[in-house]
Each structure stands twice: as C-alpha cells, then as structure tokens.
C-alpha cells in the first residue's frame, strides 16, 4: 500500500460484539494496530469487555453502547449472532449506531462500518439502506467470515466482503481486515459477501454430516480413524472438515471434537446458517436436494441433551459415531 494511503488511515476503531469470534478478533487488532491506536468496544456481556480492557489497558476502551462506540470511532466492526441483534445494534433510536451517525449536534466525518455477522441478506440490505438515508457519508459493508474460532484466534479467518474489487475503500478495508484474517475476498456488491458465506456454510455443514457418516462407516469396518482420515486426505474426498476439524475425537488434536466438542462453531449456529441458506435458495429458485435432510440433522442435534451448545461437528455423536475408537468396536 502506498505511504500516502497509510498516512491517512484512522487509528480509532470500534468493535461491537465480543463473543467467541469477536473477542479474538479484537485481540488480533489490539496486538497489530500501530502504537497509539484505540479500540472502543461494547458488548452486553460486561465480563468480556472487562477482560479485554484488562489485557490491553492502553488500547482497548470500554463504551456504554453501540452509539458510544460509533461516536468515538472512525471504523466500526460488528459481530453479532442474528439479524434481530444486528437491527437492534444498528437501528435502536437511543443506543444504536444510526443514532450516533445521525446526531445533528455531533458532526461526523466519513466512517467505515463493517458487519461480520452471518445473517439474512434482506436484513443487511435494509440496514445499509437506513444508514445511507440518514448518514450518506457512512460506508457500510457486509463482511462475514469463515474459519471458525480457531481461525479467529490464529488470525487466519477469511472475510467475504460485499463489494466490488474496485471499491474505493478496498485499501482501508483490507488494511484492517488483514489484521484479523488471512484472506479478504471481494464478492461483487452489497449482500454478496453474505450470499457467499451462506453458500459456504451450507456446503461445510453438509460435508460435516457426510464426513461423520463416512468416518463411522470406515471405522466400523475396522479401519483406524487416523488411517481413514489420511485416506480421505490423499483421495478425492479430501476436505478441510476432515483435515482440520475432523468430527472424530482424537484425529485432529486441536479440533473441538478432541476437546469434548467444546468451543468451535455451535451446532445451533449451523442450524441457523443452513436455514438461512435454504431461505435464500427458495428465494432464488435453486434446488437443494440435501438441504432439508441436513437441516433436520442439525435441528435435532441442537435439541439433543448431549449435543446442544457444542461444536457443530458433534453431529458425529448425534449420528451414533464411535468416539472412543481406541478400543475397537466392530
């Protein structure tokens, strides 16, 4: 990036939503932003805010609301669970981002606002429209991520950016997003980052079920789980779920499955995302032969006492997979 662009980059950043993805993203920003930068944060879970402030007292600043974050920041990121949360954080008349942007008593310079939540495209477009009407100088982008909690912690997540590769803000967007992730992929235009993410998670979720079934099938035939995973890695079945997030405990030591399915991408969120993907498919008229059955698996696993609130790869357990595979069970 030319030095002229670096010279005008803002050093006041905001981040709203400090859950299992948002919190490590802030940690990466705090460790990589230039000295003197400030990150203004807000979350309804006060403990998450306080932990970040304690870890980075010279960089992270606690704020009372999304509006407070917005008033103090030039670039604002949001990472929220669902569309209803996005609407509330952006559009609440007292505490929302829009209330700060449209406050006549507080003249605002042009701001960048980036939403990395995985929500329906209609909500994202509505929020963008409302911001444009009340604050024409504000630029809003959808930029959902892929890579899970491990990727967020390691700074390797991919951002699917809802804009053209020729967008005037690409240099600034890339500068900040690269501090939190490995790849930034402009997907063409508003809401297309979300369309890409929903397509990705639909595929990822279906692959997880297929991987769970195939692993269980091969293991019951007598194949060691590690050998079976290496077969898939060497053949046409190779995929990131099997290689990095294998649903069988012990195959990938750093995967959630090897930690009691703790952490990772909760099974309820996968149910939500596949549901959103199928809603998008219906609107577009596409045929998804595996979608309904896949959604049914995640919906049932989300309600199962031994699967609820755990990583989505717990579908291996839900489908009856052999978790203690060190003791052969044929």
TrEMBL record:
PROSITE patterns: 3_HYDROXYISOBUT_DH. The keyword NAD applies. Residues 13-187 form the 6-phosphogluconate dehydrogenase NADP-binding domain. Pathway: Amino-acid degradation; L-valine degradation. The keyword Ribosomal protein does not apply. It comes from Lasiosphaeria hispida. One of its GO terms (molecular function) is NADP binding. The active site is at 197. Its EC number is 1.1.1.31. This is 3-hydroxyisobutyrate dehydrogenase. It catalyses: 3-hydroxy-2-methylpropanoate + NAD(+) = 2-methyl-3-oxopropanoate + NADH + H(+).
